[in-house]
Design goal:
Elements (H helix, E strand, L loop, with lengths): L2 H16 L6 H4 L13 H4 L4 E12 L2 E9 L10 E2 L2 E3 L6 H13 L7 E5 L3 E3 L4 E9 L13 E8 H5 L4 E8 L2 E10 L2 E3 L1 H21 L1
Parallel strand pairs: 1-7
Antiparallel strand pairs: 1-2, 1-4, 2-3, 2-8, 5-7, 6-7, 9-10, 10-11
């Protein structure tokens, strides 16, 4: 099977899987910090939390699927300097999908009309910022012309999907964080540590794709 055919099959499998039962919280919790920052789920706080949409964008580079992340600047309101999916707070007049697309365009110049939404992952509640985050999964036929917003984006990080699927690239460390010791699981890529809410959402995507890999073996 050619790389191009393999890439197409991955996208088709993922699109079909996102229409069915998702791994949800069980998968997300595999990448939770210890101690856990809270135990409420998005469904328990949906009426009172702030709402944000993030874009989980898959695109090919030389027929190898990639995901794009941003390292946030120190000037943003929440989660400064952390690695995240592009996205942000929902405006009153827009849907969560529209919020994810708008924010991705503002942060990285990802043109909304160039991407196709294929589904959504399970929303995630982030207690420290009181946000419910809704991950929107989309694909595009070619690598976008990323132009990061200097106010919001310190660095654009493009990670091959197969790197994230390799369990050897999941690591754990004990950190001193906000005056206390926590155990942190993270995805490691070229010195970058993808942790926290982003890692939890990513874990659900990876769990879905394990089904595809199982079918290939």
């Amino acid at each position: 099977m050619s790389n191009k055919s393999f890439t197409g099959n991955v996208i088709r499998f993922l699109e079909e899987s996102l229409q069915g039962s998702r791994p949800g919280l069980d998968a997300q919790l595999t990448m939770i910090t210890n101690p856990r920052p809270g135990n409420r789920t998005y469904s328990e706080v949906e009426d009172s939390c702030h709402k944000a949409g993030v874009l989980v964008l898959l695109y090919p580079v030389k027929n190898r699927l990639h995901l794009v992340f941003t390292r946030r600047t120190a000037r943003v309101d929440f989660h400064q300097a952390q690695i995240s999916f592009p996205g942000g707070r929902k405006e009153p007049e827009e849907s969560l999908k529209e919020a994810a697309l708008r924010e991705a365009e503002e942060e990285l110049n990802i043109v909304s009309s160039s991407v196709r939404i294929i589904g959504e992952l399970t929303p995630l509640y982030i207690p420290p910022s009181n946000y419910c985050v809704y991950p929107v999964v989309a694909v595009t036929d070619k690598r976008p012309d990323f132009q990061p917003s200097p106010e919001e984006v310190e660095e654009v990080i493009e990670v091959p999907l197969d790197h994230l699927l390799d369990p050897q690239n999941i690591r754990r460390e004990v950190w001193q964080y906000k005056g206390r010791e926590i155990e942190v699981p993270f995805f490691f890529f070229r010195g970058h540590k993808i942790w926290g809410a982003t890692a939890m959402m990513l874990a659900e995507l990876i769990e879905l794709l394990k089904g595809f890999l199982d079918k290939q073996n």
